[in-house]
Amino acid sequence: MAALNELLATRVSALAAHDAAAWTATIADPAGTAGVAELAAYRGLVALGVRDLVVGDGPPGPGQAGGTSGSASAGLSDSWTGSVRLGYTIPGFDRGTRWVSRTVTLARADGRWRIQSWRGPADRWEPFDLPDLQVVRTERSLVAGPVSLDALRARLADVELGQDQVAAVLGRWVPAVVIVSATTEQSGRLLGAAVAPSLSAGPGQAVSDGQLAATTHGDRAPASPALADRVILDPVGLAQLTAAGRRVVLTHELTHVAVRASTLHDVPLWLSEGFAEWVAFRAERLDPRVVAARLLDRVRSSGAPTSLPSPADFAGATGDPATAYQASWLAAARIAADAGESGLVRIVHLMGGVVGEVPSSAPPVALDRALRIVLGSGEDQLVADWRGDLNRLAGAG
After folding, report:
1. Among 106, 104, 81, which Cα is nearest to 28's?
2. What per-residue string of b and e applies to 226-263 under the rule 16 or more CB within 10 Å gives b?
3. Which of 58, 104, 261, 372 has its CA 20 to 30 A from that of 241?
C-alpha cells in the first residue's frame, strides 16, 4: 500500500534525523494507548542507538510473505491492516540486520492515512517496544530494560564478568545485547509469546528452580552465523537466583551468543547446553554432587541414562529440563577431562564450523567423527565414560 510505504519512509527519515515531531506526525492518535506505544518505540530506538530502519526487504519468516500486504475495511472511518517486515541494527553490537514481522493498522481521517499501530497483539516485541526503556552499555555489553538504572548497572556488572569468562575459554568476546524485562509477560512478548515463556527449554535457555531465567533469541540463516542475538532475562527466574546463580546464567547465555556468532551450524542441543554450562560453572568451582543433585538422585533410583540427552529431554512437556542440563554439563566436563579445555572447544568448533575457517558449503562434522579427531575414540566410549562418572558421583552422594 502506497500510504504505508510513505508513512514508514517518514519514520525512517525521522529516526535518522532524531526528529520526534516528524515521527509523531505519522501517528493517528498520539494521546491514545496505541499512540503512546508508538512514541515509546521512537524513544526506545533512539536510546538503543538505532540510526536506521529497513522496510520490507528481509527474508520472510515461516509462513510469512515478504514485502507488505493487507486489506482495507470501511466503517465510520477508513482503516487498513496489513503485514510488513521491519529490520534494524544496533551499531557496535549487531553484525547484521535483525528482522521482525509486524501487523500494521492504518486509520484515515480528514483524507489522510496515519499509523494507528505497527504492532499487532500476536507480534513479537523488540526491545524498543518496551515502555520507558533505559540503556547502559560498555564496548562489549549493552543492557536495556524498563527498570531503574541501578538495576541495569547491576546486571551490566554481571554481564561484564560473564564476558571475561567467555573470553577466557574461547579467546574472544562478542558484543552482546541483554534485555532486562520488568515482568514475565514482557519476557514472553520479546520471545514471541502472548503469555509467559514456558519451561520447555530450547537452544539458548537457562532454567532455575522450575522457572525460565534467561533465553538467547535470534534468527539464524542456514550455514550462517547468528548476527543479532538478544539475551532476554526473566525477572521471576532471576529473583530466585543467588549472586553466583546470576553469574552462571549470564555466562551461560553469553557463551551461546559467542558460539552462535562464530560458527556456521547449530551443534547438538546437549553439546550446546553442556558447553555453555561448563563455561559458566568453570570459575565457580562448585561440587558436581551439589550442582547435579537432581540428576544423581535419578541415577540412584533408576540407573544412569544410556544415551546423551535428546531434544525431547529438554522439553518441559515430555522431559525434565533440569536433569538434561545437568547431564549435558557432566558430558561436556568428561570431554574436557579427557581432552582438556582446548579439546572441548575444538569439538564445538569442529561440529559448528568456525566462520572463516571452513566454507559455508561444508557439511557439519558429526559427533562421532569430531570425538575421534580430538580424543581418538568415538561416541560409544564417551557415553560409557560419562555413565561411569554419573555412577561414581551418585555412589559418593
Report:
1. 106
2. bbbbbbbbbbebbeebeeebbbbbbbbbbbbbbbbbbb
3. 261
The set of cell numbers assigned to 232 is 532476554
**What is the tens place of the pLDDT at every residue in 49-75?**
999 999 975 554 443 434 454 444 444
Taking a C-beta distance cutoff of 8 angstroms, is the pair 190, 200 a contact?
Answer: no
Q: In this model, does residue 199 exceed pLDDT 60?
A: no
User: What digits encode the pLDDT tens for the residues 277-307?
Assistant: 999 999 888 899 999 999 999 999 999 999 9
What's the distance, Cα to Cα, between the start and end of the chain in Å? Answer: 67
Nearest Cα residue to 229 out of 193, 205, 197, 247: 205
CB of 389 within 8 A of CB of 305? no
- Backbone torsions φ then ψ of 370, nearest 5 degrees: -60, -40
Q: What angle do CA 208, 214, 219 make, to 5 degrees?
A: 140
Distance CA 71, CA 81 (A): 6
Q: Are 142 and 135 within 8 A, CB to CB?
A: yes
Distance CA 208, CA 345 (A): 25
Q: Are 241 and 249 in contact (CB under 8 A)?
A: yes
pLDDT the model gives residue 197: 41
Residue 188: how many CB atoms within 10 A of its CB? 21
Place of cell 535428546: 310
- Give burial (CB, 10 Å; 0-12/13-18/19+) of 202: middle
Task: For residue 1, give every residue at least 6 positions away whose Cβ sits within 8 Å of its Cβ, in sequence order, or none.
Answer: 68, 70, 80, 82, 106
Q: Are 30 and 24 in contact (CB under 8 A)?
A: yes
Cell of 166: 567467555
Q: What share of the chain is helix, strand, coil (3-state, %, to 5)?
A: 45, 20, 35
Domains and CATH numbers, the chain: 2-123 (3.10.450.50), 130-262 (3.40.30), 263-397 (no CATH)
Residue type, 131: P
Alpha-carbon distance 152 to 264, whole Å?
Answer: 32
